[in-house]
Write a structure and sequence with these properties.
globular; about 350 residues; five-stranded mixed beta sheet; binds 5'-O-[(R)-(carboxyoxy)(hydroxy)phosphoryl]adenosine; binds zinc ion; alpha/beta
Length: about 350
C-alpha cells in the first residue's frame, strides 16, 4: 500500500511517500524559517500562502523521486491538527481534492500521533508498548503508548514547551528565530555551572513540566549585563543542562512508574545531542532502551504523516469517511479515536 503524506500544520511543508512493504520511498521538507525570521516568529498568513505555493510542486518532486505516479497511490494522509488553521486548511484541501480525484481515501492525522509513531520509520524501530517523550516547539508530554491510537497521557508542561523555551531563550541571547538548534550549538561550546539556573519542578513527584520560569531566569542574568562570547556560551550550556536534567529525570520516573523498558523520544528537541547523550547514559544505568527517529524525522515532516496514515488505514476500524474535511487547530491527543 502506497500512502502520500502532507504536513502543513506550521512553518514546514513536508511531503512524503510511504510504502507499507518497502518503507519510506522519498520525502521533502521545505522550511519557511528564513521567511519568518524577520518577524521573530511564525506569521500565520505568510505560512498559509507559502504552503499554497509549495505543496503541489513538492508532491510532484517526491512522486518522481519515489518513482511512482499519482495513480499508484492508495491513500492521501494529511495533518488535520493541531496547528495553524489556515496552514492546516491548505494541506487538508489539497489532500482531499487529490484523494477525491484519485478515488482513494483521504485520512486526517493528528500531528502528535505522527511524531509519536515516527521512530517506527527508523532502522531499529521500537516494539509496543513504550513510554514516549514528546518534545516539540508546541508540546512537552510524556505518554504511554500501547499501540496505534492507544495513548495515555502521563504528564505534560503547565506552560512553555521545551522547544519554546529553547526558542525564547535563544532570542534573549540574540540568536534569532527559530533559535533552538543555534542555542544548542552555542551550548556545546560552553560549560554549565558558571551560571546557576533552576531545574523547574524536577522534584514535584509527578510527571509534569514547567519551563517558563527558566526563560525568566535567563532574562534576569542577561538584563543590564554585557556578556562576552564565552559567557553567552556558558549561559547557553547551563540552560541546556537545566532542560535536559528535567527531561531526563521525568523520563526515568515515567519508566519507573509504568514499568516499561523502552523510551521513545520524538519531536524537534529530540534532535538535541546533549539530551540524547544523557538519556543514553540513564538507559545504561537503569537498564532501559532508547529509540530516536532519524534526525531529519525529528522535526516536522510528511513521512510521519504518511506512516500514521498507513497504520490507520490498516487498522480494522478504518472506515471511508468521504471527502468532506475539517481542520482542528486545537486537538487533544486524548480525543483521538482508537485505531
Ligand atoms: O517538532 P517540531 O519540528 O515542531 C513542532 O511541532 O513544534 O519542533 C520544533 C522545535 C523548535 O522549538 C526548535 O527550536 C526545536 O524543536 N529544536 C531543537 C533542536 N532542533 C530543533 N531544540 C534543541 N536542540 C536542537 N538540536
Ligand atoms: Zn511537530
Amino acid at each position: 500500500m502506497l500512502v502520500l503524506g502532507i504536513e502543513t500544520s506550521c512553518d514546514e511543508t513536508g511531503i512524503a511517500v510511504y510504502d507499507t512493504v518497502r518503507g519510506l520511498l522519498a520525502q521533502e521538507v521545505h522550511t519557511q524559517a528564513a521567511m519568518h525570521a524577520d518577524y521573530g516568529g511564525v506569521v500565520p498568513e505568510l505560512a498559509s500562502r507559502d504552503h499554497i505555493r509549495r505543496t503541489l510542486p513538492l508532491v510532484e518532486c517526491v512522486l518522481a523521486r519515489a518513482g511512482v505516479g499519482l495513480a499508484d497511490l492508495d491513500a492521501v494522509a494529511y495533518t488535520e491538527g493541531p496547528g495553524l488553521a489556515g496552514a492546516l486548511l491548505v494541506g487538508a484541501s489539497i489532500a482531499a481534492s487529490l484523494a477525491y480525484g484519485l478515488g482513494v481515501p483521504a485520512i486526517g492525522i493528528h500531528h502528535l500521533e505522527g511524531h509519536l509513531l515516527s521512530p517506527l520509520l527508523s532502522a531499529r524501530p521500537p516494539a509496543f508498548p513504550f513510554v514516549a517523550l514528546l518534545v516539540s516547539g508546541g508540546h512537552t508530554q510524556l505518554m504511554r503508548v500501547e499501540g496505534v491510537g492507544a495513548y495515555a497521557l502521563l504528564g505534560e508542561t503547565a506552560d512553555d514547551a521545551a522547544g519554546e523555551a529553547f526558542d525564547k531563550t535563544a532570542q534573549l541571547l540574540g540568536l534569532g528565530y527559530p533559535g533552538g538548534p543555534a542555542l544548542a550549538a552555542l551550548a556545546d561550546r560552553g560549560r554549565p555551572g558558571r551560571f546557576k539556573l533552576p531545574r523547574p519542578v524536577i522534584a514535584s513527584g509527578d510527571l509534569d513540566f514547567s519551563f517558563s520560569g527558566l526563560k525568566t531566569a535567563v532574562a534576569t542574568v542577561v538584563r543590564g549585563r554585557a556578556l562576552d562570547d564565552a559567557a553567552r556560551a556558558d549561559l547557553a550550556a547551563e540552560f541546556q543542562e537545566a532542560i535536559v536534567d528535567v527531561l531526563v529525570a521525568k523520563s526515568r520516573a515515567a519508566l519507573a512508574t509504568t514499568g516499561e523498558r523502552r523510551l521513545v523520544v520524538a519531536g524537534g528537541v529530540g534532535a538535541n545531542r546533549r539530551l540524547r547523550e544523557r538519556l543514553d547514559a540513564a538507559a545504561r544505568a537503569d537498564g532501559f532502551e532508547t529509540f530516536y527517529p532519524e534526525l531529519d524525522l525529528c522535526t516536522d515532516n510528511g513521512a510521519m504523516i504518511a506512516l500514521a496514515g498507513a497504520l490507520r488505514l490498516a487498522a480494522p476500524s478504518a472506515g471511508r469517511r468521504g471527502y468532506a474535511f475539517t481542520v482542528r487547530p486545537r486537538w487533544d491527543l486524548a480525543d483521538l479515536p482508537p485505531a
